[in-house]
Amino acid sequence: MILFLNLTVTVLVALIMAYIIRHYLFTLAALYHKKEQFPYQSHETKCEPAVSILIPARNEEHVIERILQRMTELTYPKEKLEIIVIDDASTDRTGEKAERFAKEHKFISVVHRGNEDGGKGKPAALNCGLKHVSGEFVYCFDADYYPQRDILEKLTACFRDPKVGAVQGRVTVLNEPNTLVTRLVALERTGGYRVDQFARGELGLISQFGGTVGGFRRNLLESLGGWDPDTLAEDTDLTFKVYLAGFKIKYVNHADCYEEAVEDWRSYWRQRSRWAKGHMQCAFRHLWPIIRSKNLRLKEKVDGFLLLNVYFVPIFAGLAWILGAALFLLQPLSWTKILWLTMPIAFYSAVGNFAPFFEVGIGAYLDGRNRTYWLIPLLFLTFMLNMLICTKAFIDLCISKITGKKRHAWSKTIHNGKGNHYIK
Amino acid sequence: MTSVEERFDCSRVKPNLVHLAVGSGFAAAVIVSHVQLVRFLDMSALVSISFFNLLFVFLLFPLEGSLLSKVCLLFAGNSVGVLWYLIQLSLKEASLFFLSTDTFKIINLVAWPLIDFVWIVSIWSLSLSVLASAKRKTEGLEQS
What we know:
By secondary structure, chain A is of the alpha/beta class. Chain A is 50% helix and 12% strand.
């Protein structure tokens, strides 16, 4: 029994160490990457195909006008642009406000979903919108987002590579100064996008579609069956479907978009629970196909494996902590003693997707955000919370597997529009 | 249509390899001296201090900034690390008189992974902050 426990701790620590090394390599790659090969546009040519943007919105009356106003300010030619707002059975004035924009601008239209069809989550709303699109490329923006004016040019340029099936832009936090939670989320985003996503692209690994600020080739998206309404992380699900279909996702760091981050711990918990459950669902679904895929290189398979399991890392860390401490008191083997010594390092530097402190620090350095360093030690709070969130998500998933419950309730993040005053 | 050549430059750091080499030498010397100290401290101190040095040398030494400030920050970080373990050691000794040995051992074991990173993360972030501020000042001077 003791030997079994020792072996378990060894495996857990080895897995955590793999994530530490991964993040360390990502940080080095982001810092000292080779000069990026930027898309070159020759004289007299521009890549401006017809594009459609889907904006799913459920009770977003505080933010819907902000994004629609921004859509009218995009520099992309309006005759090649189509904006479809999916009013997903809103009970507030979201639909009414969107309709006002649709009346004023020909390229904006609104699809209203009633109580019978609507309110079943973002993937279902997006699939509904997908039926109405006419563009060659389909983008998706959440209602609380605020993109750069030329974001479509930057993203669409990547589709000139026929291997690129999807593109992803960078997300930064609009309401960062509001609360401690928004500040910490901003730090996570810095590490996650500026270092993690960027390095994955640089190293030719799996770039992730984040569910928003991104787009697909329409024919590819349709052939993949659109967004899966049965998963809570439809973005991760699509990411792996794209790679399994033999395409790539291109992360474009300079295509920036603001988001309104959650402002309190309760909302943080709900949002991350949904992400954790969804990601774990994807892990169960795609792990084996990724390993067997002939479209992926070995390094992509390894990264895909680690990416799919990233939400298990906080659980591993918690387990290794409890088992390691117990074993150290009971009967540790010599190698377990050494492994236990590495635990503090493992603890804070392998938080996976939530970006370890050195990744966040270097991301902030590269962005020139000098005033955020003092907050980095506080990321410990989100790490501890994520340990609980991921463990609960895993237990919930196991229970739903046992009871045969397939669908999970989509808990919507509420946006109060407090970020509006940061926009001129 | 106008001719367009899009060049979206992404900030990257040209690593200062000389600083990296010097930093590696200093870190190696510091770790060797810590190995000598292990009989006074304990193994856990050595592991954490080595990790701190690894992070510091490869992620901070190649960045912009004066070599002297980096070396000073490295030594300051190591000093804080040693101090941290001396405090822990003192607590351990003191607890022998007031609590049972096991009590401290259990508290230390459970809390250790949480407590230990505090100095590593704080000192590392502080050092990065110092380097970034120096860089900003230099850029400000160049612009003016």
